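Researcher: For the annotation table, I need structure tokens for Transcriptional regulator. Please keep the output clean. Sequence:
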Amino acid sequence: MVTASSPLPLFKALADDTRLQLMLLIMTEGEVCVCEMTHALNETQPKISRHLALLRQARLLADRREGQWVYYRLADTLDEGSKILLTQTQQHYRGYIAPALARLDKMGNRPDRRQLCC
């Protein structure tokens, strides 16, 4: 769990390439469906779900269900230091998730994506 007293859980959660890309993708998009993440990162649903569970356990993400779809967003309880770190990472390393964003854009607009989801 990320706490104000220790940044270690945050850095452990972000130390994996897939988890960092997921966090930056969610920050950029605001809210993302699991199926969109699998498409954007070109990974399997079980792998994405495993990483999302770790990010949720670290209290970095929140989720909501809409029918069969699960959408993720940054947790409302995310502390200011974590938000600043993620925002600066997102701004400084824009090219890091550019391929994932390009793949996501090829899915079409959100209503069309829902038809492709899950």
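Researcher: And a one-line annotation?
Model: Helices lie at 8-14, 17-29, 34-41, 45-57, 80-92, 98-105, 110-116.
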